[in-house]
C-alpha cells in the first residue's frame, strides 16, 4: 500500500509523539505539524480507514501494529539518508534533517536496501539515533544523560536529544559531536551548569539546558554520579 507525503508525515509525527506515553491527542499532533485540529481530525479518519490507527474521538489515538511498521520504515529511510549525506557527501550534521525529510518519501524498497548495503548497514545515524533494520528492529545503546555522569569519568557522546539547527550549531561551536570523549570536572549548584573537559582542550562550562540534550556512553563501565560543587 502506498501513502501520500502528507500521510507519511502524519504517521511519523504520531510515532514520535506516542513515545513513551502510548497515546496522542489531536491538539498535540496539530501543534507538532503546525496545522489546525480540524485538518488533523480529517487525516485521522483516513488513517483509521487504512487500518493504520486506533482512534476514538476525544480519547486519544495511537498507531496500530501496521501503522508502527509504516512509521519505522519512514524513520529507517530518514536516518539512512542522513547517514549517507554526512558520511558520503560530507554535509554537516546540522544541515541534513530537512534534506532527509524530502528523501524519506522515496518509496523504492530496492533503493533503500541497496543504500543500506552501500553504507555497510549502519546501526546509528549521525545524531546517535538508532536506525531500524529492514524488520524494524533497532539496536539498544547503553547510555545516560550527561547530567548523570560522575566527576572525572570519561564518557563518549552517543546521542543528542534534539536535532534543532540551533542546538547542533552550538555543539559544533563547542567541538562536541557524536564520538567526542569528555569528562565532567565540576557541577555547580547555583545554576546546575557543569564544567567539562574534552581531550586535549582546556575545561569549559556548559549550561544545564545544553547538558540535558547530551547522552553519553560511560567508558570503563562506570556510571557513578558525582558530587555538586558548592
Please give a structural write-up.
The protein is an alpha+beta fold and 230 residues long. Among the domains are: 5-63, Arc Repressor Mutant, subunit A (Orthogonal Bundle), CATH 1.10.10; 144-221, SH3 type barrels (Roll), CATH 2.30.30.90. Helices cover 38% and strands 15% of the residues. It contains eight helices and eight strands. The protein has helices at 5-17, 26-33, 37-49, 65-87, 97-103, 109-118, 165-173, 208-211; strands at residues 53-55, 61-63, 144-145, 155-160, 181-187, 194-198, 204-206, 214-218. The strands form two sheets. Strands 3-8-4-5-6-7 form a six-stranded antiparallel β-sheet. A hairpin with a 6-residue loop joins strand 5 and strand 6. Helix 1 (5-17) crosses helix 2 (26-33), helix 1 crosses helix 4 and helix 2 (26-33) packs across helix 3. The longest helix has 23 residues, at 65-87.
What does this entry show, briefly?
With 230 residues, the chain is of the alpha+beta class. It has helices spanning 5-17, 26-33, 37-49, 65-87, 97-103, 109-118, 165-173, 208-211; strands at 53-55, 61-63, 144-145, 155-160, 181-187, 194-198, 204-206, 214-218.
Amino acid at each position: 500500500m502506498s501513502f501520500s507525503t502528507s500521510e507519511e508525515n502524519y504517521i511519523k509525527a504520531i510515532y514520535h509523539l506516542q513515545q513513551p506515553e502510548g497515546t496522542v491527542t489531536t491538539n498535540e499532533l496539530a501543534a507538532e505539524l503546525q496545522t489546525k485540529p480540524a485538518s488533523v481530525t480529517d487525516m485521522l479518519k483516513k488513517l483509521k480507514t487504512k487500518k493504520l490507527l486506533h482512534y476514538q474521538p476525544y480519547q486519544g489515538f495511537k498507531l496500530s501494529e501496521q501503522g508502527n511498521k509504516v512509521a519505522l520504515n519512514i524513520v529507517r529511510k530518514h536516518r539512512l539518508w542522513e547517514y549517507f549525506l554526512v558520511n558520503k557527501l560530507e554535509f554537516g550534521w546540522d544541515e541534513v534533517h530537512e534534506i532527509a525529510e524530502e528523501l524519506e518519501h522515496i518509496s523504492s524498497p530496492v533503493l533503500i536496501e541497496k543504500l543500506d548495503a552501500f553504507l555497510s548497514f549502519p546501526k546509528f545515524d549521525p545524531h546517535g539515533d538508532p536506525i531500524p533494520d529492514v524488520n524494524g528492529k533497532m539496536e539498544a545503546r547503553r547510555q545516560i544523560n550527561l547530567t548523570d555522569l560522575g566527576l572525572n569519568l570519561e564518557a563518549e557522546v552517543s546521542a543528542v536529544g534534539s536535532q534543532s539547527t540551533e542546538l547542533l550549531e552550538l555543539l559544533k561551536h563547542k567541538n562536541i559531536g557524536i564520538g567526542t570523549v569528555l569528562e565532567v570536572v565540576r557541577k555547580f549548584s547555583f545554576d546546575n551548569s557543569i564544567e567539562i573537559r574534552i581531550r586535549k582542550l582546556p575545561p569549559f562550562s556548559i549550561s544545564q539546558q545544553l547538558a540535558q540534550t547530551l547522552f553519553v556512553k560511560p567508558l570503563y563501565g562506570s556510571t557513578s554520579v558525582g558530587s555538586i560543587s558548592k
